[in-house]
Amino acid sequence: MAPQIGRLALGWAAFLVLASGVLLLTLTPGTPEFVVTLFTLCLGLLLGLIVVAAVLVLRRREKREGS
Q1: Which residue in 46, 54, 57, 65 is a FRET match for 10, CA 20 to 30 A apart?
Q2: pLDDT given for residue 66 in this prediction
Q3: How does residue 1 score in pLDDT terms, banded at 50, 70 and 90?
Q4: Contacts for 51 with CB less than 8 Å, ≥ 6 apart
Q5: What is the pLDDT of residues 2-42, one digit of tens each?
Q6: Is 14 or 62 the better-scoring residue by pLDDT?
Q7: How many Å apart are CA 2 and CA 45, to the nearest integer?
Q8: How many domains does the structure of the chain reveal?
Q9: Rounded distance, CA 9 to CA 47, Å?
């Protein structure tokens, strides 16, 4: 994964998490908007975890190939 793609994906994940986190504080639980925002928060967290896992795997692979 190119570093620019990883940074872009991590930026999007941070944006999704922060924006949906702030929105969740203002929305009423049980409304459709709350459910969609909660879903967006979960997607942002999932994207962030995927990016971090991919970076860790690629660093380990590069370390093994370099040795």
Answers
A1: 65
A2: 80
A3: low
A4: 6, 9, 10, 13
A5: 788 889 999 999 999 999 999 999 999 999 999 999 999 99
A6: 14
A7: 21
A8: 1
A9: 7
Sign of CA dihedral 50, 12, 15, 32: negative
pTM: 0.86
Question: Which two structure tokens, joined as six digits, stand for 65?
Answer: 């190939």
* Domain membership of residue 33 as a residue range: 2-63
| Longest CA pairwise span in the chain (Å) | 55
Residues in the chain: 67
Structure-token pair, residue 3: 């570093």
Is 21 buried (19+), middle (13-18) or exposed (0-12) by CB count in 10 A? Answer: middle
Residue whose entry in the numeric block shows the structure tokens 């994906």: 9
